[in-house]
Design a protein that fits this description.
single chain; alpha+beta; 60s Ribosomal Protein L30, Chain: A; four-stranded mixed beta sheet; globular; Cytotoxic_necrot_fac-like_cat; chemotaxis; Chemorcpt_Glu_NH3ase_CheD; hydrolase
Length: 186
């Protein structure tokens, strides 16, 4: 099985039955598109839905926005033989993982649903919101998707261990250290 991992600002398409496209999401969104007749699918991963109306986006930053990411994915699918009217979407992510960022995940999810509705693309499975990150695995050949939340787990605290014992003979130490005084940064 070939695995294609994508990150923010990327998309991938495939028509191979032995390929899985995967990503990890927090507040970001991944949209998986599938054309069952063409046996073709693709996934994108975007950071923000769309820029504020007054915000001028530099060309090198367009990949961060869903508006651009969706157009790239749809166009790539159509270039490989998908038909727009046959596309079906699965939508994931939009968690509000970091409270300090507000409801950015919610806004991202709302953007994705609004965009797909405007474009007339049917939505199949949708897992948006919450507070936990998600892992998404999409098989583009048949459109199947597996998603799971990732719980925050911390490594157990280290067990206390005895400090290493360093043996030095008094005669081996320079005189300035033989009195037990420490002086840092003369």
């Amino acid at each position: 099985m070939q695995r294609i991992a994508i990150v923010q600002g990327q998309h991938a398409i495939a028509d191979d039955p032995d390929t899985i496209i995967t990503t990890l999401l927090g507040s970001c969104i991944a949209v998986c598109l599938h054309d069952a007749e063409a046996k073709l699918g693709g996934m994108n991963h975007f950071l923000l839905g769309e820029p504020e109306p007054q915000h001028r986006v530099r060309p090198e930053d367009r990949h961060r926005y869903g508006l651009h990411a969706m157009e790239l994915l749809i166009n790539a699918m159509m270039q490989k033989g998908a038909a727009r009217h046959r596309l079906r979407a699965h939508v994931f992510g939009g968690a509000n993982v970091v409270p300090a960022f507000g409801k950015i995940g919610t806004a991202n999810g709302e953007f994705a649903l609004r965009f797909l509705g405007t474009e007339g693309i049917a939505i199949g499975h949708c897992a948006l919101g919450g507070i936990l990150p998600r892992k998404v695995e999409f098989r583009p050949w048949d459109g199947t998707v597996h998603t799971s939340t990732i719980e925050e787990r911390f490594a157990p605290p280290p067990r206390p261990s005895a400090a290493p014992q360093v043996q030095m003979q008094g005669s081996d130490m320079p005189d300035e250290y033989s009195h037990g005084d420490v002086e840092l940064f003369r």
